[in-house]
Design brief:
The protein is mainly α and 86 residues long. It has helices at residues 4-26, 31-53, 61-85. The protein has 2 domains: 1-54; 60-86. The radius of gyration is 16 Å and the shape is flat. The mean pLDDT is 89. This is Cytochrome C oxidase subunit IV.
Length: 86
C-alpha cells in the first residue's frame, strides 16, 4: 500500500491536471486543441485515480486487463448509442 507522500503527490497532480483543463479554455487555445487536451488530461486523471486510489497498481495484471476490457466495452456501447440517436 502506498504511503501518505505518494497520495499527496497524486492529489497535487490531480489538482494540477484539473487546473490544466481550465487553462485550455481560458487562454484562447483553438477549440479542437482545447478539447483534445482536455480529453488527454481526463484520461491521465482516470489512470491515476484507478491506479492509486482504487489500488489497481497492486492487483494482479489479469484484473487490470479485465477492467480495461470492461471500459472498452462501455466505450463500444456509447458509440452504438450515438449511432442509434442520429
Amino acid at each position: 500500500m502506498a504511503n501518505l507522500r505518494t497520495y499527496t503527490l497524486i492529489y497535487i497532480l490531480l489538482v494540477a491536471l484539473a487546473t490544466g483543463k481550465f487553462v485550455f479554455f481560458e487562454f484562447n487555445f483553438a477549440y479542437a486543441t482545447a478539447i483534445g487536451g482536455t480529453i488527454l488530461l481526463a484520461i491521465t486523471k482516470i489512470l491515476l485515480i484507478a491506479g492509486y486510489y482504487q489500488h489497481l497498481i497492486e492487483e494482479p495484471r489479469a484484473i487490470s486487463y479485465m477492467m480495461a476490457t470492461a471500459v472498452f466495452m462501455v466505450f463500444l456501447l456509447v458509440i452504438a448509442a450515438g449511432y442509434s440517436i442520429q
